[in-house]
Amino acid sequence: MLITILMIVIVLIAIFLSYYLFSHLNSEAEFFKLKVAKHPVLKKEMTISAWLLLILSILTFICMAFNNPLLEIAALIILILSATICEMVLMSYVMKNIGN
C-alpha cells in the first residue's frame, strides 16, 4: 500500500515537472533567468528531460496495473533516479551560463 502511494506521488511529480519543462520551451519564456530561445543546448536538454520524465511516468503508471511489488519498486527507483539526473543536468547548465 505504501509503495502504491509513493508511486502515485512520484508519477504526479514527474508529470508536473515534464509539463513545467514543456511550458517553458517557447521563445518568450525564461528558465532560471535564461532565455530558452538564446540557448539551444538548454532547449534541447529541457525537451529530452521532459519527454523522458513523461514516458517514464506513463510506464510507471502501467507498472502499477500489474500489481507486482518488484516491478513497482524497480519502476519507482528508475523514475526517481532519472528525474534526479535530468534536474542535475539542467541545473549544471544553468549554473555555468547564469552570468553570461
Task: Walk me through what this model shows.
This protein is mainly α. It has one domain (2-97). The chain has 3 helices and 2 strands, in the order αββαα. A two-stranded antiparallel sheet has the order 1-2. Helix 2 (40-66) packs antiparallel against helix 3. The protein is elongated and about 50 Å long. The mean pLDDT is 85.
- Main sheet, how many strands, which sense, barrel? 2 strands, antiparallel
Shape: elongated
Q: What are the low-pLDDT stretches, counting only 5+ consecutive residues below 50?
A: none
Strand content: under 5%
Mean pLDDT, rounded to whole units?
85
Spatial strand order of the main sheet: 1-2
- What's the total number of strands? 2
Helix content: over 70%
**Which value, in Å, is the CA radius of gyration?**
15 Å
Number of DSSP helices? 3
Kindly name the structural category.
mainly alpha
| Distance N to C terminus | 48 Å
Number of domains: 1
SSE pattern, N- to C-terminal: HEEHH
